[in-house]
Automatic annotation (TrEMBL):
A Pfam family per the record: HSF_DNA-bind
Domain HSF-type DNA-binding: 46-172
Keywords for the protein's UniProt record, in alphabetical order: DNA-binding, Nucleus, Transcription, Transcription regulation
Keyword Nucleus: yes
Source species of the chain: Syncephalastrum racemosum (Filamentous fungus)
Subcellular location: Nucleus
Major location category of this protein: nucleus
Name the UniProt record assigns to this protein: HSF-type DNA-binding-domain-containing protein
Classification of source organism: Eukaryota, Fungi, Fungi incertae sedis, Mucoromycota, Mucoromycotina
Length: 284
């Protein structure tokens, strides 16, 4: 009996309390690390605002039913577009336009991927987020519509366990039309700069020749004197404008007086003509 007990292998007993505490400690460490990484991403000055917000929401534990990582951590899964557009987009992007969100993803190099068999986590979130939308959760039509509303996106530099790659995500260049317009605008600006530089060179050349001719009598003008001269010129221009207005008024009055004189002369001529007619009649 003693020999049998010695030959039996010893059984290791596991304390469930210690196992649970170890698991809880690991979860707390993982959560703390995730929070620290999210804080570093949110405060990074080398990342685009869109990439920061996307990283924050996909790692937010409270939004896992609306957006989450794939099991491998390299794909963003959005189980229900309608619910996501109503609850998440207005909060983080100040709009609820799903197409606009997709365009932004494409601008930063994300592409849509298709998974013929969704992961258990994605399937669970799809059922949860669509529970209030589809009455018949088991019907084939409901399953097809739910699959159509589920989207997955991927970017090789947007990975759950490697936030250091985020700096490699850059916004794509604009379309050819935008590029050509920018190029034409740049050429116009360069041409304007060249013309301005040429005018400046000509002005400097004239100024140098004038300064060489009158260097002996040259007196520098201070800023205060220049301002006074400018005010004087402005005052003279105002006086000139007032004088022109007065001249126009005088011309108008002179024209009116001339018209009155012409009318009076015509009246006198008419009177003389009538007198002559009366005289002729009386003489006859």
């Amino acid at each position: 009996m003693t020999g049998e007990s010695m030959s039996r292998p010893s059984r290791r007993t596991t304390n469930p309390v210690n196992s649970q505490s170890t698991s809880a400690t690991e979860d707390e460490d993982s959560a703390t690390t995730g929070i620290q990484v999210s804080m570093e991403v949110a405060t990074s000055s080398s990342l685009a605002t869109f990439i920061k917000k996307l990283w924050i929401i996909v790692n937010d534990a409270n939004l896992q039913s609306l957006i989450h990582w794939s099991d491998a951590g390299d794909v963003i899964c959005i189980p229900n577009v309608t619910v996501f557009s109503k609850r998440v987009l207005p909060k983080y992007f100040k709009h609820g336009n799903w197409q606009s969100f997709v365009r932004q993803l494409n601008m930063y190099g994300f592409r849509r991927v298709y998974s013929p068999t969704p992961s258990p986590l994605t399937a669970h979130h799809t059922r949860t987020s669509a529970a209030s939308t589809w009455p018949d959760q088991s019907g084939p039509m409901s399953m097809m519509l739910r699959s159509a509303s589920s989207y997955q996106f991927m970017n090789e530099n947007f990975v759950r366990d490697d936030s250091q790659k985020l700096v490699n995500i850059k916004r794509k260049a604009g379309s050819n039309r935008q590029t050509n317009a920018a190029r034409q605008q740049k050429q116009q600006q360069q041409q304007q700069q060249q013309e301005q530089q040429q005018a400046t060179d000509d002005t400097e050349s004239q100024g140098q020749s004038q300064s060489q001719r009158g260097a002996a009598n040259h007196v520098p003008i201070s800023t205060e004197v220049a301002e006074q001269l400018q005010e004087r010129v402005s005052h003279l221009l105002e006086q000139l404008t007032d004088t022109e207005k007065k001249l126009e008024l005088m011309q108008s009055e002179a024209h009116s007086i001339k018209q009155i004189q012409i009318q009076q002369q015509q009246i006198q001529l008419d009177r003389c003509s009538r007198r002559k007619v009366h005289q002729n009649i009386s003489c006859s």
